[in-house]
Design goal:
about 200 residues, single chain, alpha+beta, globular, 4 helices, two-stranded antiparallel ribbon, six-stranded mixed sheet
């Protein structure tokens, strides 16, 4: 007769009455990787599709190859928008002078010039609605939203620019095969399915 294995019981943190703060995001023990803070609630990331990972790689590579020396490109770094919001854009372009060291875990919203979200099935509403509204309110000048389109499910990148008066994003371009824009710096990259599959 063999003994039944004892299942370890996992205990999720109990949120405070007013919700979590960004301080909690960085001090609560044993949070899963890439946990975000949205409106005082912890958001855990689900497993991602291959498209999500590959598209991030493609864009990071293209952005880094054209970024001027005073700009740096990061993937999956927390951006502190306010005391109750610490999302983690899939890609951020930041001012190089704000990069402190290799131990850095976050950037202030004022340091970020571009936030990029690649839509996932579990995060579609956050990526299309909540996050861009919050990025715009925090003053991040540019936002890109990446998805699949058409029957062949090819990449499409929607480029938005901040209207400083209304603090909302205005669509400035939709790119299907080539992503060509002058902001936040000159970018010209192949975003076809072939480019994605060549990674």
């Amino acid at each position: 007769m063999t003994a039944e294995p004892v299942k370890a019981e996992h205990r999720w943190p109990v949120p405070p009455q007013d919700g979590y703060t960004v301080d909690d995001l960085f001090t609560l023990p044993n949070l899963p990787p890439h946990t975000e803070l949205i409106d005082g609630s912890l958001v855990f990331v689900s497993p991602q599709r291959a498209f999500h990972s590959m598209m991030i790689d493609l864009l990071v590579s293209g952005l880094r190859s054209t970024a001027p020396p005073d700009r740096k490109v990061y993937r999956e770094m927390t951006v502190l928008l306010d005391n109750r919001n610490g999302p983690e854009p899939d890609i951020s372009v930041v001012r190089a002078k704000e990069v402190i060291d290799l131990e850095q875990t976050r950037f202030q919203a004022a340091d970020v010039l571009l936030a990029v979200e690649v839509i996932s099935p579990d995060s579609e509403v956050r990526d299309q609605d909540a996050k861009p509204r919050k990025y715009a309110a925090a003053g991040i000048p540019y936002f890109w939203l990446v998805d699949m389109a058409g029957s062949d499910r090819h990449p499409v990148v929607r480029v938005y620019e901040l209207d400083p008066v209304s603090k909302t994003y205005a669509l400035s371009g939709i790119h299907h095969e080539r992503l060509k824009t002058a902001v936040p710096f000159t970018v010209d990259m192949d975003i076809t399915l072939d480019a994605l599959r060549a990674l």
